Amino acid sequence: MTAHIRFEERRLFPFLESALSEALLSGIRDILAKLHEPQFKDDYPDEFWLQHKDKPHTGSE
């Protein structure tokens, strides 16, 4: 497995970067980013007991 990864990093990827156009590499990057987007979005509000940097806890709340 290590040999395979080293081959990709040292030979394949540099070759592809030199052989493919910037536009094509950009398109590949966008496709890969879309494929690897997280399936779960943590949009639940922070717990009330967490102290926020812009609003320090005073103890009177």
How is this structure best described in words?
This protein is an all-alpha fold and 61 residues long. 52% of the residues lie in helices and 0% in strands. The protein contains 2 helices and no strands. The longest helix is centred in the first third of the chain and has 18 residues, at 2-19. The chain starts with a helix and ends in a 26-residue tail after the last helix. The mean pLDDT is 85.
Question: What is this structure's SSE topology?
Answer:
Layout lengths: L1 H18 L2 H14 L26
Helix/strand class = mainly alpha
Instruction: Please indicate the percent range of residues in DSSP E strands (runs of 2 or more).
Output: under 5%
End-to-end gap: 56 Å
The proportion of residues forming helix, as a percent range, comes to: 40-55%
Global outline = elongated
Radius of gyration: 22 Å
